[in-house]
Specification:
Layout: H1 2-22, H2 25-51, H3 56-66, H4 73-87
Helix pairs in contact: 1-2
């Protein structure tokens, strides 16, 4: 959804440049319409991200709160000390 909003922004910018170059009110109104569509897409993307629409954002936050993350720091430290002891 964010990529769609970026593409719509690019289209709006092109319409703005064309409207300024040829002094056309129709292209200016088209630019305004495209900007409104891009804004709506951006708001939908933000709302979906906060809600965890795809499930990943909400799951990641829950894992961080519980401390269930993979690659636990304690394991890395223990492995590092073991490797150091073998070298001595």
């Amino acid at each position: 959804m964010l990529i769609a909003a970026l593409v719509v922004t690019l289209v709006g910018f092109v319409l703005l440049v064309v409207a300024l170059v040829i002094s056309s009110v129709a292209f200016a109104w088209a630019c305004i319409g495209v900007c409104i569509v891009g804004f709506v897409l951006l708001v939908i993307d933000i709302i979906r991200g906060r809600r965890g629409g795809d499930g990943t954002a909400a799951d990641d936050e829950a894992q961080q709160e519980r401390g269930d993350g993979t690659g636990d720091d304690g394991d890395e430290v223990a492995a590092g000390h073991g490797a150091q002891d073998e070298a001595d």
